[in-house]
């Protein structure tokens, strides 16, 4: 191809945060209609690179960057994301940038609203323009239809499941007519396999129209399926820039982590056969009013010491089960922990009963973004269980045990390989995957009787994913913690769980042993119901 086909050049890009080098001499090109797969461990520099390309304020506010960004032969300097958008760059972030109380239509056309004539404009100016809502709705429908999904354009974002929010973000970028470059940061992390396939087909159609795409994913098979080239970052350096045809899952994983890793298709561990014994959690006729993930009527039992999986397609109710039991959404029914009834619709009561929760919404529920890693790790244990607190005068005076807090935080930073400067670093400055590790550390600190882990490896690379799953397994085996894992990745559930429940249309279709044939799980997900509402 000639140089006229090069839409983006990155030349000698460098960046450091507070003396910590996160990118060093990055060089690559993106051609029109090309899809580049960008991979690397959490903390390898992927998100920082994308933030530079999209003009995110955090880059300018921390001293800027070195090197050049060239679009269609001209060097550019972005002061903010609006500059990047005006130069034809669209970005779908790993964390959602949507307005919760706006509809899908309003979010998709934000700052590009369609207006209609109003005579008052002649007198009072543009502030009296009226929105042409029917035209906006039609345009939003076109963008949604291009994705091949069924989202009502009038639905509020606050009422959407996470997968619909992701598609709304992507629809917003597709609607931009001047887009030349599309950056997607873990767009399939919250999608089921079928939804991910729909998205990948959409990206192929966009590339066929000449749009250059940078696709970041920890699902390495997706990278192989959709990308023309693969760029591998490790510790802030570009390790490989290679045609997809010359790579496979094992080689990519090895380049990412600098060591051999097991293929993701293998079990995380050899699970001993579960002996049905004492029931620690009994759920009967649970109903949860979680927008986009409603639970109609769910009953099941979990055995003490078990790792129990909950899977199913998006919007079928799997996320509603842990969110309802933990009191985050209105719920009805009966939940017994060790034969003692849990008070529903009361998050504090659930925590005090010995339940703990890793939320799928780490920014909205799981983290104090502007606080330190150390405080985030101990916060729930400190507030609910009164740990890490020194008492004086019989408890009349209390203050934090800073020494113990930092000792505990450093232990989990090492244990979970949280890539950071130290315990004092703010969580907002971490990559998405490292933020997720902080969420895991936070709930494990409470030493719960039962741990609900909802999408625990969302946005985590292949090496760190295995590490997190192994830590959960370790707590299960060594501490006797009963764990209930909700995940969009069936392979992940089958690798770590003893049994897996598949949720369909707000009810449990059936509960199968994790080693049951894969096609049995697939049939249940598609509505071929076995023991509906059963408690195998």
What is the third-level CATH name, the topology of the largest domain? Rossmann fold
- Give the number of domains: 3
Q: Specify the CATH architecture of the largest domain.
A: 3-Layer(aba) Sandwich
**Full CATH superfamily name of the largest domain:** P-loop containing nucleotide triphosphate hydrolases
- Count of separate DSSP helical elements: 19
Strands in their spatial order, largest beta sheet? 6-9-10-3-11-12
Description:
The protein has 536 residues and is an alpha/beta fold. The chain has 3 domains: 3-257, Rossmann fold; 265-354 and 448-536, P-loop containing nucleotide triphosphate hydrolases (Rossmann fold, 3-Layer(aba) Sandwich), CATH 3.40.50; 364-446, no CATH class. Helices cover 33% and strands 25% of the residues. The protein contains 19 helices and 24 strands. The protein has a 6-stranded mixed sheet, with helices on both faces. A 6-stranded mixed sheet has the order 18-21-22-15-23-24. Strand 1 (6-17) and strand 2 (20-31) form a beta hairpin. Helix 14 (373-384) packs parallel to helix 16. Residues 261-270 and 530-536 have low confidence and may be disordered.
Keywords:
536 residues; Rossmann fold; 19 helices; six-stranded mixed β-sheet
Topology of this protein?
Layout lengths: L5 E12 L2 E12 L3 E5 L6 H8 L3 H4 L5 E6 L2 E2 L5 H6 L2 E4 L11 H5 L6 E2 L4 H4 L5 E2 L1 H15 L14 H13 L6 E5 L7 H16 L3 E5 L3 H7 L2 E6 L2 E7 L5 H9 L21 E10 L6 E9 L3 E5 L8 H6 L5 E7 L2 E2 L5 H6 L2 E4 L3 H5 L6 H12 L4 E4 L4 E4 L1 H14 L16 H13 L5 E5 L7 H18 L2 E5 L3 H7 L2 E6 L2 E7 L4 H8 L11
Parallel strand pairs: 3-10, 3-11, 6-9, 9-10, 15-22, 15-23, 18-21, 21-22
Antiparallel strand pairs: 1-2, 1-4, 4-5, 7-8, 11-12, 13-14, 13-16, 16-17, 19-20, 23-24
Helix pairs in contact: 6-7, 14-15, 14-16
């Amino acid at each position: 191809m000639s140089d006229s086909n090069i839409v983006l050049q990155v030349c000698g890009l460098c960046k450091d945060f507070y003396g910590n080098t996160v990118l060093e001499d990055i060089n690559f090109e993106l051609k029109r209609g090309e899809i580049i797969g960008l991979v690397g461990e959490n903390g390898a520099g992927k998100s920082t690179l994308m933030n530079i390309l999209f003009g995110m304020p955090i880059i300018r506010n921390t001293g800027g960057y070195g090197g050049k960004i060239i679009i269609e032969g001209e060097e550019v300097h972005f002061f903010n994301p609006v500059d990047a958008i005006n130069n034809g760059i669209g970005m779908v972030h790993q964390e959602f940038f949507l307005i919760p109380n706006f509809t899908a239509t309003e979010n998709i056309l934000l700052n590009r609203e369609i207006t209609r004539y109003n005579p008052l404009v002649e007198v009072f100016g543009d502030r009296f323009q009226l929105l042409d809502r029917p035209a906006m709705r039609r345009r939003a429908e076109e963008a949604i239809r291009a994705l091949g999904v069924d989202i009502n354009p009038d639905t509020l974002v606050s009422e959407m499941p996470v997968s619909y929010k992701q598609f709304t973000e992507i629809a917003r970028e597709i609607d931009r007519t001047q887009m030349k470059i599309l950056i997607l940061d873990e767009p399939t992390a919250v999608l089921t396999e079928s939804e991910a396939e729909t998205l990948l087909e959409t990206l192929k159609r966009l590339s066929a129209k000449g749009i250059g795409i940078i696709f970041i994913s920890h699902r390495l098979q997706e990278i192989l399926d959709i990308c023309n080239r693969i760029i591998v970052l490790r510790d802030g350096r570009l390790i490989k820039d290679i045609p997809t045809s010359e790579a496979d899952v094992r080689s990519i994983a090895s380049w990412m982590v600098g060591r051999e890793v097991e293929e993701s298709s293998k079990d995380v561990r050899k699970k001993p056969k579960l002996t049905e014994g004492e029931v620690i959690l009994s759920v009967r006729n649970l109903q949860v009013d979680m927008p986009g993930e409603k639970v109609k009527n769910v009953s099941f039992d979990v055995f003490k010491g078990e790792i129990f999986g909950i899977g199913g397609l998006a919007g079928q109710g799997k996320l509603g089960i842990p969110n309802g039991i933990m009191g985050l959404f209105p719920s009805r029914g009966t939940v017994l922990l060790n034969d003692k009834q849990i008070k529903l619709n009361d998050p504090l009561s659930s925590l005090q009963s010995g339940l703990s929760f890793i939320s799928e919404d780490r920014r909205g529920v799981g983290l104090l973004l502007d606080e330190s890693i150390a405080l985030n790790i101990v916060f729930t244990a400190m507030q609910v269980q009164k740990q890490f607190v020194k008492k004086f005068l019989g408890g009349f005076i209390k203050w934090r045990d800073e020494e113990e807090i930092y000792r505990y935080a450093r232990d989990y930073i090492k244990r979970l390989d949280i890539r950071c400067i130290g315990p004092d670093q703010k969580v907002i400055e971490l990559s998405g995957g490292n933020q997720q590790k902080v969420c895991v550390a936070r709930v494990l600190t409470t030493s719960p009787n039962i741990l609900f882990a909802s999408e625990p490896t969302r946005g985590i690379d292949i090496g760190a994913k295995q590490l997190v799953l192994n830590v959960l397994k370790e707590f299960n085996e060594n501490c006797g913690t009963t764990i209930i894992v909700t995940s969009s990745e069936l392979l992940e559930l089958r690798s770590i769980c003893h049994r897996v429940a598949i949720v369909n249309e707000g009810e449990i279709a059936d509960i199968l042993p994790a080693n049951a044939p894969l096609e049995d799980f697939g049939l249940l997900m598609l509505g071929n119901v076995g023991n509906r509402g059963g408690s195998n």
